[in-house]
């Protein structure tokens, strides 16, 4: 039978010639991608059309690795550094209101050609996914290796093995400035998309999020359309399309919550108790990556960190073994964190102990499935310094409040929140007239925020 083109357009019918091997191969290969099971067939078809349109952006089968145009790396000896040391530190955290003003000012300076661009924080990056209903993760195939190296830099990228000496012609993994260079390059390529607020880039991982399917398709199309001209190749088998939740940056993330990826945890916890400083550093570094999920993690690990002190013999005592097992337990039973809603008030719980250190938890009450629910956004903690250990109980609690406000400045600046403490003298201490320089400085710091205090 015959169908007119008007009927084909009306009902979304597409007819392929069986002899057209390219189309058949393309459809088969795109099935290797991981697609959400919650989207309809119509939504899946519309997504496949966009993927087919941007076919050159994907590295499928035995295709050669892409080489990104215009972003070759250049290495220098330590004689003259290309960037001053102060630019190597991460940016200061800023609240939602402050970020908008910073972005406006930075864009003005960029337009005037006054400044130019010089690794985002993972928790702040994932916070942006709040309220997202569709999430897509796109992975750059062997990301670093898609950066070419300039001829003068190749002599610094030599490796040796039993087969001889070789030089990298592309950026290898392992050099100190590789992540920074790749992050800067990706931020430059996708600067417009990042500023529009629907895309997160962390080195070679691209996360696209939206509240509607139509916007999601448009965003995916825009990202892939930028990859093709610069020869940036995407690994299809590592892509996740249109998911409600997915694994990204070591977490299981959705538009509502943030959870530890237990597959990552299981691999580390199967290892025996650390038998050297290097093994202990690896374990504590892993635990520190998930410190926002663990209450009072600094207190628990204090005895383990003492192993790194000078003239301390490496010995796993009962106290240290208990701390090690406690961290393992906390990692496997960590709570699911909620993503912040900056339009709702926060709750800040603080607790300080002269013998243990400082601790705080940021909570928020949100409406989930029509019912109010209070959840944890993050935990923070640290040890007391030697000078701080001599403070009284009330002073230590005041120090804890000031430190928590500074640490959680990203969330609390300009926001409405309640402070909860069990120190009855703290409120009067903050309102009293004093000549003590510590108290004066703390009182001024606290006045910048819009928080109210509740004694529990």
UniProtKB/TrEMBL annotation:
Record InterPro entries: DNA/RNA_pol_sf, Retrovirus_Pol_polyprotein, Rev_trsase/Diguanyl_cyclase, RT_dom, RT_RNaseH
Q: Which UniProt keywords apply?
A: Endonuclease, Hydrolase, Nuclease, Nucleotidyltransferase, RNA-directed DNA polymerase, Transferase
The residues covered by the Reverse transcriptase RNase H-like domain are 341-449
Record Gene3D superfamilies:
3.30.70.270, HIV Type 1 Reverse Transcriptase, subunit A, domain 1
Answer yes or no on keyword Hydrolase: yes
Pfam families assigned: RT_RNaseH, RVT_1
Q: Which GO terms describe its molecular function?
A: endonuclease activity; hydrolase activity; RNA-directed DNA polymerase activity
Q: Which domain of life is it from?
A: Eukaryota
Keyword Hydrolase listed? The answer is: yes
The UniProt record lists the Reverse transcriptase domain at 100-253
Cited PANTHER family: PROTEIN CBG26694 (PTHR37984), PROTEIN NYNRIN-LIKE (PTHR37984:SF5)
The molecule here is called Reverse transcriptase domain-containing protein
Q: Which organism is it from?
A: Austropuccinia psidii MF-1
